[in-house]
Amino acid sequence: MAGILPDTEDTAKISREKLLEKGFLFKYRTHTYTNKKGNVYGYCYDYGYLKLEQDWILVVRNKEISTRNPALDKQAVKQ
C-alpha cells in the first residue's frame, strides 16, 4: 500500500483490479476498524482500506502510527 499512497496524502482511491495487479491480498489483515458511520476498514499494519461502490477501494493511512517518528521522540527526551 505504501506505493499507492504518497507520503503527502492520507487517502487515495484506487480500483480493486489495480490493487490486485500490484499483488495486494485482501484476505490478510492485522485488524479492522469500524467508524461511527458503521464502515468497516480492513488494516494491514498502518494502511487501511474500505470497499466502496463499483469495485473502488479507499486506501487510508493510520495517522496514529504513521505520524510517530522515533527520531523526534528521542529529541523530545533530550530537551
Describe this structure in words.
- The protein is α+β, with helices and mostly antiparallel strands and 79 residues long.
- It is 24% helix and 32% strand.
- It has helices spanning 16-21, 63-66, 70-78, and strands at 11-15, 31-34, 40-44, 47-51, 56-61.
- It has a 5-stranded antiparallel beta sheet with strand order 1-5-4-3-2.
- The N and C termini lie far apart (35 Å).
CA gyration radius, whole angstroms: 15 Å
Report the major sheet. 5 strands, antiparallel
Structural class: alpha+beta
SSE sequence, one letter per element: EHEEEEHH
Mean pLDDT rating: 81
Percentage beta strand: 25-35%
Low-confidence stretches: 65-79
Strand order of the largest sheet: 1-5-4-3-2
